[in-house]
UniProtKB/TrEMBL annotation:
Keywords: Endonuclease, Hydrolase, Nuclease, RNA-binding. Residues 232-297 form the DRBM domain. This is Dicer. One of its GO terms (molecular function) is double-stranded RNA binding. It comes from the Eukaryota. The keyword Nuclease applies. One of its GO terms (biological process) is regulation of gene expression. Residues 49-198 form the RNase III domain.
Amino acid sequence: IKVIYDSVPTNEDINDMVKNGSQLEQSIGVSPAMSVASYLKMEQRSLDIESVFQRYKFENADLSVHQFVRYPVVTNINLENLAFVHRSIPNMNVNLTEAQKTVMSNERLEFLGDSWLGAFVAYVLYRKYPFSDEGALSRMKNAIVNNSNLGKLSQKLGFKERLKENIPRSKTKIKDRSFRQYADCFEAYLGALVIDRFSAEFLDVVDWIEELSQDQFRTLGGTMEKKPLNKNAKGELGNYLQFNKLDAKVKYFCLNNQPPFKSEVRLCDIFLGMGEGQNIKEAEQRAAMEAIDDIDTIQKYSIHVME
């Protein structure tokens, strides 16, 4: 609405577009969108829609009704119901063709949702971690977009109870397969949202995905905005302390045995720095980077003059 009030051309400008503009400008000038925008602008004095929204705090995120809405709603009821129909349901009907079985299950919605989920998560991470490199962003994305996590989210949202399926119990007892069918349901529902809102704004869907990813942000968020890795940090530290006043060797110690790995670097018993990485090599390089940043300590033990 604000864009319309601020940017819509005057009636004179619109008439000029239609009479003297290019083919594209003429098409825009006679379009229904331009007619609606022009009408809203013309009636602003008698009904200022922007002021109405502001007066009743329409964008307030703390409305009590929100406690009853656990996820964005698909307005098309048939589309919403389809998102919860597993392929095993139409497969029970021997009179249906393969094409009919396909359109009567959530498989096509799952395909769409799978593609868009990656894009939504990528957009969320792009905004949330503006200084993270592609590798860090990919690791966070993989922590969110996987069958195990999506299956858990699907159950958390109540999709497990809504999913209509006829899968043999022997298959659902296998953990990975169980998560897979609920992960597929989650993706199908997202696909339904995409179709339902394709011409509308997606901000609420993006906010929803971001909210559901808070566990991953808390667990891995600390690794997302690291300093760029200096791949020669160990070599630089070695040059500074190869000949030192203690006549000791620089040694690295790995503090754990699973990612993210943590390593510390010491000169004899003197702590120089600690680093964390997805592998031991990165952790050691980052420990060396931290040590190099402490110029006073390096100068204290090195026989070289630090510049």
